[in-house]
Amino acid sequence: MNYNVRGENIEVTPAIREYVEKKIGKLERYFNNTPDANVLVNLKVNNNTSKVEVTIPMQNLVLRAEEENADMYAAIDLINDKLERQIRKHKTKVNRKFRNNLSNTPEAFAFATELDEVDEFEDDSDIEVVRNKRFDLKPMDSEEAILQMNMLGHSFFVYTNADTNTTNVVYRRKDGRYGLIEPS
């Protein structure tokens, strides 16, 4: 894995970089082959609060987690736990799909025996579609989509971008600002 560690309002010391690489490197045990992935780590410090963001884009999966804590090292530990849970959850889905299809799907993760136990945070009752909606996508710009989203009181809104004629999603972020998801 290739690590890209950036700091905002903090100098990334060799000790911090080494700690990040050591902790995130432990995730490699979940893979059959060490993935050739870029690990993007963003460290921020604001008002005595440390925030760590980690993104690991891979071929069939994007691992991403954020964590805030007063201590930078504690935030890195918590981020590692979140990423580990995501990998286990994905591993469970892959296992379930593999068992159901009985196909020769290539496995992305090493299935260690201690991890093949039933995960307490993943069972069939967690994934259930309780409502299905269909609607026509109206062409509009992102500003109009944000207004529509706010009028409906939702946290996201799907629409057709009038300029590019592609399906986009606007959403309200935790910090109160807005995000836009566009297809590549």
Low-confidence stretches: 110-124
The global form is globular
Tally of discrete structural domains: 2
Number of strands: 8
CATH architecture of the largest domain: 2-Layer Sandwich
Sheet with most strands:
4 strands, mixed
Distance between the termini: 24 Å
Rounded mean pLDDT score? 80
Strand order of the largest sheet: 1-2-3-4
Characterise the protein shown here.
With 184 residues, the protein is an alpha/beta fold. The protein has 2 domains: 2-126, Ribosome hibernation promotion factor-like (Double Stranded RNA Binding Domain), CATH 3.30.160.100; 139-181, SHC Adaptor Protein, CATH 3.30.505. It has 3 helices and 8 strands. The chain has helices at 14-25, 72-101, 142-152, and strands spanning 2-8, 38-46, 49-57, 62-69, 139-140, 156-161, 167-172, 178-181. The strands form 2 sheets. Strands 1-2-3-4 form a 4-stranded mixed sheet, with helices on one face. A 4-stranded mixed sheet has the order 5-6-7-8, with helices on one face. The relative contact order is 0.10. Mean pLDDT is 80; it is low at 110-124.
Write the layout of secondary structure elements.
Blueprint: E1 2-8, H1 14-25, E2 38-46, E3 49-57, E4 62-69, H2 72-101, E5 139-140, H3 142-152, E6 156-161, E7 167-172, E8 178-181
Helix pairs in contact: 1-2
